[in-house]
Give the backbone structure.
Amino acid sequence: MANSGICWQWGCPLDFAPSHTPSFQPVDGQESGPELAARARQAGAFVAIAHPQWSGLTLDDARTIEAAHAVEIYNHGCARGCDRGDGMAIADLLLTEGRRLSLIATDDAHFTEPDHFGGWVEVKAEANTPELLLEALKRGDFYATQGPRFEDIVVEDEAVEVASSAVCTVIVQASGTAASAMHGHSMTRTRLPLARFARRDWIRVTLIDAAGRRAWSNPIWRE
């Protein structure tokens, strides 16, 4: 894994040349974040836009990272260290513009504070090998979580059915303000209508458990 400050790269080959970034201050001739992301993707890496809120990324900044496969929707280290852990606004705006992106969560743990075991991805791969995990990430065969589990998501013409670990809230959201939520106790199978999303290109699902921990599905595109 490599980190350029605004993008994560998983799966870079061992001989991948590092960017000339000796500090957080710019230097002459330095490779830009978008250039590094493009070079990493060309080398076979899975690339994500890292901690947009912590980095102070604008939408225009995020647009320049055209090589990204994903946006970091949650960074636990940034959440615990400065309460700037989410990337939801940037992710949703890019999705609304038609960017086919997935959503990741990470710890980004530096272990200088309680910043570990707070965010990760659950990957559906044929085996626990680097090659197959990388392929699954690129396909979007995973979800991001702080703990809750997705078991299944079935999208029908008029409703979406979500099977999960026990949660108290299930939300379906799309571009703009389109959203529908179901609240309860220890819900493990939830069905929500899609009438509000008839003209939306994509939807995604959020789970919230009794402890306030969340899980986020990848966007589901509705061709």
